[in-house]
Amino acid sequence: DFCLSRGLGDVYKRQLLSLHFKNKIIQMKSNTVAELLKKDAKSQDIEIKGWVRTFRANRFIALNDGSTLQNIQCVVDFEKTDEAILKRITTGAAVHIKGQLIESQGKGQNVEIAVLSINILGDSDPETYPIQPKKHSFEFLRENAHLRTRTNTFSAVMRLRSSLSFAIHKYFNENGFYYMHTPIITGSDAEGAGEMFRVSNLDAKNPPLNEDGSVNFKEDFFGKETNLTVSGQLEAETFAMSLGKVYTFGPTFRAENSNTSRHLAEFWMIEPEVAFMDLAGNMDLAEDFMKSVLKYVLDNNREDLEFLEQRLLDEEKTKPQAERSEMSLIEKINFVVDNNFKRVSYTEAIDILKNSKPNKKKQFNYIIEEWGADLQSEHERFLVEKHFKCPVILFDYPANIKAFYMRLNEDGKTVRAMDILFPGIGEMVGGSQREERLDVLKAKMKALDIDEEELWWYLDLRKYGTAVHSGFGLGFERLVMFATGMGNIRDVIPYPRTPQNAEF
Ligand code: 4AD
Ligand code: MG
Fold first, then answer.
1. How far is the CA of 473 from the centre of ligand 1 (A)?
2. Residues facing residue 198 across a β-bridge
3. Which residue, 406, 401, 355, 398, is CA-closest to 379?
4. Which of 141, 188, 303, 316 could form a cystine bridge with 324, CB 3.0-4.6 A?
């Protein structure tokens, strides 16, 4: 039909057909381990390519290709195999095996491969290969991040990361949101006071100067000072005010010098923005969204989750009883999916904190004295881990500890902000209803010394058809931390960027 509709002759037709069948054959023959393990073992010819995890007794290869946590056992007939080849079957080598899928003779697997021929695609060096078949520390694996996905833990984490990211796009797609690509290079500072990374191609040694000695950015590539974005929110607002429901999901950058297990200098953020939605709607959306994507991995990534759950249990055995968590990984995820997030105003939270034991006994580093105090992570953790023991949505924060664009409440001192706090993680989401009143927004910017001219387009949204709108930002790596039970954010992103570190 393809050829007919384009008036192509028989020669083309034959070529296309042969190409078609060639592809079919390639598809049929090269299996993944995941596919093979699902097949029933009627002796059938198969081919498989992957990396050797271990080679035991000159006979048993545990082969992994990343398609699943599991290895497939490949049994080599060493009497019929060249001695030189046997020597090259070492941990880390890439091999191409042809053989028969048969019912397993041994315990631990249903099927295995009786090897007919083995071709070494790429040798490894057992002396220097960093990923030996033994337990490695996460610090060591971070230094070998280019190979750490050849371990069970990191392949499981990265498969989950991929799956969560798919679930996020799926959720928004199914709920009528448009995916917007907000710019990565920006001329404005969305959060008002963020620490940003400058983007410039001026000669660092000899930059053009103004008369007063300052750098003349008019001569820079963009004719102005530009930075890597800290958030796509402000641009997302422009699309929300025309397309209605949108979201961004992209990399964001912050040059804050916080060397903690929850901060990265480059992280991925999901930011939905919705016209005609108020703060209550924003909370509903965030809660429904997070439950939905976590449910997705419960349903689709069971094997990896069970492995990571066991890893966490083993790790916790080394900790004192008091520090161990009451729930297993899968129980924790189920708990979040099945229970309502607790909604608490900032004012209520301050009362709880003021009267809490660690505050009265002065165990907090920052003692809560009065309304208006900024919450530190020790306070957030007390609220979610000790007091409420579930995810908490804190809302209506004091205006002066939050960003300029948040909607001022009628009380004149709080804004319609919300933070979602998670047990073990702390702040997962930050969001708000946006200030839609031009005069109020301008007054706020003036008070904070934010240049109106720089954000002329943002103010235009309030001039032409302004309306209530809201959105939030979810730190993707913090979500991956929660879903995998990993304790350090550096271990849930392929190549972490942190102060003094941009290897790979
Ligand atoms: O609370 P933040 O700063 O909010 C914003 O950027 C808003 N513009 C979002 C919006 O309303 N559209 O950041 C949002 C989330 C935080 O709650 C946290 O989960 C994550 O981003 N986050 C980080 N994750 C890793 N490393 C860092 N340095 C992070 N800073 C923030
Ligand atoms: Mg925040």
1. 6
2. 227
3. 355
4. 316
Residue whose C-alpha is closest to residue 414's, from 366, 349, 466? 349
Mean pLDDT by 10 residues, the chain (504 residues): 58 58 52 91 88 96 97 95 96 97 86 96 96 94 98 98 98 98 87 79 96 96 95 97 98 92 97 98 98 98 98 93 88 96 98 96 96 95 94 97 96 98 95 98 94 94 98 98 98 97 96
| Ligand 1 proximity of 195 Cβ (cutoff 6 Å) | no
Class of residue 116 by CB neighbours under 10 A (exposed 0-12, middle 13-18, buried 19+)? middle
Prediction pTM value: 0.93
pLDDT, residue 27, reads: 45
Task: Answer whether 267 contacts ligand 1 (Cβ < 6 A).
Answer: yes
| Smallest-distance ligand from the CA of 477 | 1
DSSP 415: E
Q: Dihedral of the CA atoms 217, 221, 222, 228 (nearest 10)?
A: -90
Mention every residue, 6+ apart, whose C-beta is less than 8 A from residue 400. 372
Q: CB-side exposure of 349: number of CA atoms within 13 Å?
A: 29
Q: Is the CB of 233 under 6 A from ligand 1?
A: yes
Please name which of 263, 288, 309, 251 lies closest in space to residue 167, comparing C-alpha atoms: 288
Number of the ligand closest to the Cα of 490: 1
Best substitution site from 191, 421, 432, 478 to test ligand 1's pocket, by max atoms within 8 Å of Cβ? 478
Q: What is the pLDDT of residue 434?
A: 98
Q: Rounded to an integer, what distance in angstroms lies between the CA atom of residue 281 and that of residue 167? A: 21
472 within ligand 1 shell (Cβ under 6 A): yes
**Cα(152)–Cα(221) distance, integer angstroms:** 45
Q: Name, in order, each residue with C-beta under 8 angstroms of 139's C-beta and a sequence gap of 6 or more.
A: none
With a 6 Å cutoff on the Cβ, whether 471 touches ligand 1 is yes
CB neighbours (10 Å) of residue 393? 21
How high is the pLDDT of residue 326? 84
The two tokens of residue 314 are: 């083993």
Give the distance from CA 243 to its chain's centroid: 26
